[in-house]
Amino acid sequence: MSLKEKVLSELLLSAGKYCSGGQLSEDYGVSRTAVWKAIEQLKAQGCQIEAVTNKGYLLKEIPDIYNQQYLESLLHGTGFQVQHYAEIDSTNRLAKDLAAQNAPSRTVITADVQTAGRGRMGKSFHSPTGGLYMSVIVKPDLPLSATMSITACTASAVHKALEEFGIVTQIKWVNDLFLNGRKICGILSEGSFNAELLKMDYLVIGIGVNLHADPYLPEELKPIVTDLETETGKKINKCQLLAAILKNMKKYFDEIQQKTYLKIYAENSCTLGHRVRTDTGLEGQATGFTEEAGLKLRLDDGTETVLSTGSAQIID
Q1: Which terminus of the chain has fewer Cβ atoms in its 10 Å neighbourhood, N or C?
Q2: Do 174 and 154 fall into the same domain?
């Protein structure tokens, strides 16, 4: 960890109190000039730091900068172990490789940028600087039929995490979160399954949240994609949001047998009550969810069916 990162960690953990430059110098065995240079580097990255003689340094606003020690303090006692990368091809790809090598449940991979982010059905997931990109390894003792419920459980956890920051999203079946009619979060679940026992070996749950505006957003995505800062004016710290998502995932996964998440999922659905078209061309009215988060459809001839896989586009 660089001196700059150590100083940032101390400022973050001080929770609004001044940090003495002399004490930082003594703690890390460096000169006060070295501490001052680290402070200047942090300011250049956008950190608002106040310096007061005989008091020290105060972080006025928590910056959107990843800091491992700060994140570990937020996740203390949850069992999550986070590996962070400045850039990676795909957090899901690495998480799947690690899971296949028997990495423990609650291993988390995060990145500032993905060069080959993945979406559902083989689509790419645009992952520039300014987003939160994470993949979580889970090893639930659940049947294959519960795969969709885990994705829906994750969507509910992200919804509740954003609610803690005063942001209320809607959930589009099965794996997207929308704000003001446009997508701000996508979720992709991939895994390995025991065909003989019809159980999951592991799942990797990828989550991507658009935090800030992307000046290079492709034209074809502008009508359907947005970001939290543009829509709300809020700048959310990545570490705080990451911790909030993981804590809510733990809560709803621990209660998955009680279906705690399903009420949240249904109450905040932007799919229910609408006419939808499935990726197989089926059309009908979305009327509800099964206990495993399958989508109930009423077809034009009055018959009922359930979607347990695939996707559904809202058409009315």
Answers
A1: C
A2: yes
Clarify whether residues 112 and 242 are in a common domain: yes
Instruction: Mark whether 200 and 110 lie in a shared domain.
Output: yes
| Coil, strand or helix at 270 | coil
* Sign of the C-alpha dihedral computed for residues 96, 102, 108 and 114 taken in this order: negative
Q: Are residues 135 and 246 both part of a single domain? A: yes
Nearest to 118 by CA among 208, 200, 178: 208
**Per-residue pLDDT reduced to its tens digit, 189-245:** 998 887 777 788 999 999 999 998 888 888 888 899 999 999 999 989 899 999 999
Residue 303 clears pLDDT 80, i.e. is over it: yes
Q: Could you tell me the residue range of the domain that residue 72 belongs to?
A: 68-267
| pTM over 0.70, yes/no | yes
Domain match, 76 and 50 both: no
Distance separating alpha carbons of residues 66 and 239, to the nearest angstrom: 6
Tens digit of pLDDT for each residue in 154-194?
999 999 999 999 999 999 998 899 999 999 999 999 988 87
Q: Residue 176 is encoded by which pair of tokens?
A: 């997207």
Tell me, yes or no, whether 188 and 205 share the same domain: yes
- CATH value at residue 47: 1.10.10.10
Mean pLDDT of 10-22: 88
Strand partners, 314: 276
Q: State phi, psi for 196 to the nearest 5 degrees.
A: -70, -45
Given this model, what pLDDT does residue 125 score? Answer: 65
Among residues 133, 131, 138, 146, the alpha carbon closest in space to that of 96 is found at 138
Residue type, 182: R
